[in-house]
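Recap from last week: sequence in, structure out.
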Amino acid sequence: MIHFTSYAEKKFEILNRHKVFFTREQIEDTVGAPEKVSKKGKFYFAQKDGIKIVYRKDDEIIKILTFYPKKP
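Predicted structure tokens:
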């Protein structure tokens, strides 16, 4: 199960104001099938199609903390 934190929910609006548009489906797809994954402490970083996502795993729940456009 994927859960978006309240900040992650607000991040859609924040990025939209800067003309950067991502959908929930893109975020979920990136976490589900990333091109690259790394871990630092208890945080995971997934990347795919120009998106970088920071998340945490709590048992079977994936909590999306934030996401942003990945620099080329």
